[in-house]
């Protein structure tokens, strides 16, 4: 999809009587650029136990390569990246990398606020990090009252096949029960990382389009995908209704979240 185009208007002739000459001046519309669609801004939070590779994944995505000498994140760090959905629409992902240590758990609600998606990372060679996903998901559900935060379970260190303690099948089954998307990555080789990011962009686009439709049905048709996030799309009335669906278990799934389709 081209980012800009030019009009095909012909040039105009302007008779300048003061000089008695005829000059050709290009129609201003000829050079008028069609501005590309603005990137849709969305906040993504990365959660998981200490040492599972959250920061390494993000550094890989940010083009900084892999290092085995990675210190633990203290509090949180932040990167901003661009990803595209399948239709070419660009997303500006504001990604918050949180600390996995227990002493920083109290800060999670701060970084979760207004998030559109959550990446829940575990280490396939560390079964406890897989078990702990349940508590991380409960934390997301406690903070996300509307049930609209999209979940992505990321199985990292898939290059360490001989040390694997959680099978891909088990990981996928768990993700399905949580109505979450499942991806396998290797921060060492970079495998799967860009797939995760493009999948997040695709799912966010589908979710925002769904919420835009709901907003229009509720009489709030001024929602702008380019300037708003999924969280912004949930008006008070819609949030209350989805909260009731979640409570009653009638939102199409146990968690109340919608599940997008990756084509």
Automatic annotation (TrEMBL):
Bias (Basic and acidic residues): 234-248
Biased composition (Low complexity): 1-10
SMART domains: RAB, RAN, RAS, RHO
Polar residues: bias regions: 11-21
Pfam families with a match to the protein in the record: Ras
Region (Disordered): 1-35, 234-257
Similarity annotation: Belongs to the small GTPase superfamily. Rab family.
Official protein name in the record: Uncharacterized protein
UniProt organism field: Heterodera trifolii
